[in-house]
Design brief:
The protein has about 260 residues and is an alpha/beta fold. The chain is built from seven helices and 13 strands. About 30% of the residues lie in helices and about 25% in strands.
């Protein structure tokens, strides 16, 4: 009697073959890379020097600590994108450019963030750059002369605030803080404690810049910031409402007056 032997092996499917081929190609590429790295190292393409420029507030040792590279490493094995991401994660660093110069040198050019203002958000104070990016919450006493921005702001908000300051430099030098109200408008607080309430930027036909120009002109003519007032409200186009200080109340009738 003839015994029939059945073959239980199933033929490989097209998908399996493609998977095996992909694995084979990865292994082959890895071997080729290893060979290439070893060959380049034997040829002298190894790290011998790192040149770092552009540092003012970031220390060299801070950069070196995050690089995690050593002399003698194969130059072509160094992942420049990974190094860039590590350095740009440092507080003061805004942008990094890294160039590999064979046989063995890395050039690292750092662009640092510029301190713009102090920012108070959710009760926490930090130093921010002109784009509103937080730099650090340490050593803030050294930046106590900067304006304090209160509330959530973005880069466009700060550019709008810069335009206000540029339009009236004499007033800008007297600003102590600026409060972003409901994400729409600003209250400007001067160093003598006077708060100026401004309308929303997009309010038409009387908005932020019209009110600021009006305030600058009125202050020049009437020295509003020298009066005994605590609040100057310019949110309405047809009037300016002022709230006087306690000393001012003793000198005049009522709590409010209008120009």
């Amino acid at each position: 009697m003839t015994q029939i032997v059945r073959n239980n092996l199933r033929p490989l499917t097209g998908g399996t073959l493609l998977l095996l081929l992909a694995v084979f190609m990865v292994l082959l590429r890895q071997e080729a890379n290893n060979w290439f790295m070893e060959t380049s190292s034997d040829a002298g393409f190894v790290l011998t020097d790192v040149d770092i420029t552009g540092l003012a507030r970031t220390r060299n040792r801070d950069i070196e600590a995050v690089l995690d590279i050593d002399n003698g490493m194969p130059m072509l094995a160094i992942d420049l994108g990974d190094l860039q991401a590590r350095i740009e994660a440092l507080p003061w660093v805004k942008q990094v450019e890294i160039n590999r110069v064979l046989p063995g040198k890395l050039f690292i050019s750092v662009t640092e963030r510029e301190p713009y203002a102090l920012s108070q958000r959710n009760g926490q104070v930090s130093l921010i750059d002109p784009d509103g990016a937080s730099i650090t919450d340490r050593g803030l006493a050294a930046y106590s002369d900067l304006i304090l921005i209160v509330g959530e702001v973005d880069a466009e908000d700060l550019r709008a605030f810069d335009r206000l300051k540029d339009a009236a430099p004499a007033l800008a030098g007297r600003i102590k803080s600026a409060v972003r109200v409901d994400g729409r408008r600003w209250d400007i607080i001067f160093k003598n404690g006077v708060r100026v309430k401004l309308p929303a930027a997009l309010q038409q036909p009387y908005g932020l810049h019209e009110a600021w120009t009006r305030f600058e002109e009125l202050n020049r003519k009437h020295q509003l910031l020298e009066r005994e007032v605590s609040v100057l409200d310019l949110r309405l186009a047809d009037r300016l409402v002022a709230r006087v200080t306690p000393d001012g109340r003793r000198k005049m009738q009522g709590k409010e007056w209008a120009l």
